Known about the structure:
- With 326 residues, the protein is α/β, with parallel strands linked by helices.
- It has 13 helices and nine strands.
- Helix content is 48%, strand content 16%.
- A nine-stranded mixed β-sheet has the order 3-4-5-2-1-6-7-9-8, with helices on both faces.
- It is globular and about 55 Å long.
- It starts with a helix and ends in an 11-residue tail after the last strand.
Amino acid sequence: MASSSRDPRITDISDEAVRGTCDDASLCKRYAVNVGYWQDPYIEHFVRLPKERKAPEISRGYYARVQGVGHLLKAFLHKTQCNCQIINLGAGMDTLFWKLKDENLLPRKYFEVDFPSIVTRKIHTIKSKPPLSKPIMESHSGESLLIDAHSLDSSRYSIIGADLRDLPKLEENLKKCDMDPCLPTLLMAECVLIYMTHEHSTCLLKWVADMFRTAMFINYEQVNMADRFGQIMIENLQSRQCSLVGVEDCRSLDTQKARFLLNGWETANAADMVQVYRSLPPDDIKRIETLEFLDEKELLEQLMQHYCLCWATKDSSHLGLAEISL
Ligand SMILES: C[S@@+](CC[C@H](N)C(=O)[O-])C[C@H]1O[C@@H](n2cnc3c(N)ncnc32)[C@H](O)[C@@H]1O
């Protein structure tokens, strides 16, 4: 870990592998959408349908993740009556902006941040696909929309190319796109913090807590990583040059909560994905469990024990954010 931060060549290789995880996530989502787990008419523009079959365990896991994050996110939008902003950290090819617009649930402004090379790809795709660019134009008002290779800034949606480990630059870029520190703010990170060292992710969580008076953070990522199954997950990624340098915060639900409570947040909750799955509406579970045959549930259970949702709040405006639960 120490040597990777000293040797720029090693950092470059592992950053490249981290950027590659963006494609893994969108391929799995595209596959699950195609089987019918949930609807997303936008993901097909970002990624081709994979040729090989994905295991049903993977798709069910993604279903629980998308529904769990969506549930917490909608609770925040409800508490703030959409008078808020969302900052999606390490957003990759996420399609949430378009889905919220379709549901008439857009916040005042929706920001995405990812490495510049990922952002360049995303902007290129948006520019060349009218089903993606039209909703951005429709929600835009005022002066002309700013768009270049590394950023897009419209009145309701901004995409920023930045490294989450460089906080002064991140802050400068967000402010250039009219981020408002006084507005209730939801930050989301799905499988992102684990790719940053403990020091970097701690600084990020503290920076958010210092910046926003009223905020919620939704973090989805690995947990219970100290056991044998966790070890195998680490080794699998390491074999692709992708090291989980932030794994020490993913030891347990308690370590996931502690990183918030020790860094300026008032409340923190965490649930593994077994709990999240069980909290989903029974009719939804029944529907998705008929989509694909799952021989035995043990692997699904193990996988879901190794991912979690953690959400933290600070609420100077007394909006009742601490009441948000699964
Ligand atoms: C596993 S992907 C998840 C993408 C998206 N959140 C999703 O769930 O579909 C992780 C993303 O985090 C981004 N990321 C990781 N570390 C980052 C950093 N230091 N700065 C900016 N982006 C980062 C990667 O480029 C990648 O797009």
